[in-house]
Design a protein that fits this description.
Largest sheet: 4 strands, mixed
Order of helices and strands: EEHEEEHHE
Strand content: 15-25%
Distance between the termini: 39 Å
Strand order of the largest sheet: 3-5-4-6
Structural class: alpha/beta
CATH topology: Zincin-like
Shape: globular
CATH class: Alpha Beta
Radius of gyration: 13 Å
Length: 104
């Protein structure tokens, strides 16, 4: 296990969860980039392409939350997701966790 990653369930570390979430992001055609700046992350669309920008300095737990927020904007019914991930994303869809994506 990599340093800095917590075990969330038996065999499920933050590292594994991040890997699975990034697979879904990639499969949906979302371009994910890391860049330094005074922000944690952002999700936006430019010329019909979705982008997710992440600050490399954020914690793994925060990155998981940002990925779940971004994914909550998509129909994931045809995507395979581990139940724990689907539940976390669905929580974002139903209520105050839902995000509004910026369109540039």
């Amino acid at each position: 296990m990599s340093p800095g990653f917590r075990i969330l369930r038996a065999g499920m570390t933050e590292e594994v969860i991040l890997e699975k979430l990034h697979e879904v992001v990639k499969n949906l055609g979302i371009i994910c980039r890391r860049c330094d700046g005074e922000f944690e992350g952002g999700f936006f669309r430019k010329q019909n392409q979705w982008f997710l920008m992440l600050n490399p300095g954020i914690s793994a737990a925060r990155e998981i939350e940002l990925l779940c927020q971004a994914l909550s904007n998509f129909d994931l019914s045809d995507c395979f997701l581990l139940p724990v991930l689907r539940k976390r994303i669905e929580v974002r869809k139903s209520g105050s966790g839902q995000t509004q994506a910026a369109t540039w």
